[in-house]
Amino acid sequence: MPKNRRKRNFMIQILAKIMLWIAVVAWSVWFGGLMYELFVITPLWSANLPSSAIEWNSRPNFLLIPTPFYAPVAVTTILSSLLGLIFNWKSNNRRIWLILSTVSAILTLGFTLIYFFPKNEVLFHNQNLGLSGEEITAIGNAWIRANWIRVGMMIVGFFAALKAFSLPKSD
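The structure corresponding to this sequence follows.
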C-alpha cells in the first residue's frame, strides 16, 4: 500500500474515533438535559394542572427558555453522529448502530420542532392564550405523554451511539 494511502486511512481511523467520542458526549449532554427537564422542571409546571401551569406562567422569573441549551447540543449530536457514520461507513460492526443513532437524533429533533415547539408556545410563552383549565390540562398531559416518546427515541439513539463506540472497527 502506498504511503499516502496508509496515511489517509490512518487519518480516517482517527477521525472515525473522534466523531464517535463527540457523538457519545453530545448524546450524554442532550439526554442528561432531557432527564433534568423531565424530573426537575416538568413537575414544577405540571404537578397540579391547570393551576400549576397558570402559576408557572404568572412568574416570568420561572420561565425557562431551553432552546439556547438544546439547539447547539442537538445540532452537535446530529452532526457528530452523521460524521461518525460517514467515517465509520466501512466498519460493518459500527455501521448499523451509527445509522440508528443518526436517525434517532434527526427524528428526535424533528419531533421536538414539530410537536413540542407549538405546545411550548401555548403552555409557557403566551400566558396560556386564554385557554380554559380543561384545555390547559389536556395540552399539558399530552405534552407529558409525548415527552415519554421523546425519551424513548433518545434512549435508542444514545445507546446505539454507545454500542457503536464500544465495538472495534472492522472492515
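The two ends are 16 Å apart (CA to CA).
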